[in-house]
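User: tokens in, sequence out, please.
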């Protein structure tokens, strides 16, 4: 999925304090790094021998995420496991209980910000850390297509809001901010196309967790729509390679015939 942070901007000193950065090596697997760069939380990470201001913690299990400071720099945020669920100011008791019990996957809430503008957030519950988290749906990037099947603008909007989107072939998917991969589905693998910087990028997402409250067994991602998407990407790769080769041949021909860049005198 599309990243909202750049790897070169990672706060390495914060990682070093947690024992996750040693000798120019970041001690996180690539999927957890991808989750951080996409603005999501990592899986649970075991932190050991933490020392700060005279306090020593032998071991702390926590999830990690990135946040942006007022000066624009990134900081590493640690989300430990709380003994009791942390309250969210926008939720009433009944709503909080429905999220904690899993009856609801998320709740949409509107609030007025400091400038008097009405904002909308989607609130989820992280059962691992016992925290409620919220996100701005406008900052979520929805797929343009799933397994070569285009999503309508309405389906993309529903995905951003954390609603379950169902395709004609029965494939269902849902954005999930608390998931490292950022997505749930009734299929274990999906092939997504996303518009990035004016061009289409393709992402193969595997190991996807099942939708909440879905009693049906997940289906494997390798089916006809998936195969069609793979063939389309292979076709594009061949076309791009051929185009690059033709451009190189044309460049060499122009140089040999004196058709290079001209200048005026």
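Assistant: Sequence out:
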């Amino acid at each position: 999925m599309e990243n909202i942070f750049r790897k070169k901007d990672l706060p390495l000193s914060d990682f070093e304090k947690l024992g996750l950065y040693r000798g120019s090596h970041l001690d996180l697997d690539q999927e957890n790094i991808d989750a951080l760069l996409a603005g999501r939380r990592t899986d649970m990470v075991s932190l050991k021998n933490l020392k700060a201001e005279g306090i020593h913690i032998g071991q702390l299990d926590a999830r990690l995420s990135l946040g942006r400071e007022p000066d624009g720099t990134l900081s590493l945020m640690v989300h430990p496991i709380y003994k009791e669920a942390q309250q969210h100011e926008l939720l009433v008791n009944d709503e909080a209980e429905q999220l904690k019990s899993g009856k609801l996957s998320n709740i949409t809430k509107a609030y007025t910000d400091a400038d008097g503008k009405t904002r909308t957030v989607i609130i989820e519950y992280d059962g691992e850390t016992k925290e409620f988290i919220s996100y701005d749906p406008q900052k979520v990037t929805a797929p343009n297509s799933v397994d070569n099947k285009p999503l309508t603008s309405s389906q993309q909007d529903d995905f951003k809001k954390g609603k379950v989107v169902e395709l004609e072939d029965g494939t269902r998917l849902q954005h999930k901010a608390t998931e490292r991969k950022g997505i749930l589905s009734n299929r274990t693998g999906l092939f997504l196309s996303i518009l990035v910087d004016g061009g289409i990028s393709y992402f193969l997402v595997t190991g996807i967790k099942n939708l909440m409250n879905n009693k049906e067994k997940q289906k494997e991602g390798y089916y006809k729509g998936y195969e069609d998407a793979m063939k389309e990407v292979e076709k594009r790769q061949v076309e791009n390679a051929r185009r690059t080769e033709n451009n190189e041949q044309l460049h060499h021909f122009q140089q040999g015939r004196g058709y290079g860049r001209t200048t005026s005198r």
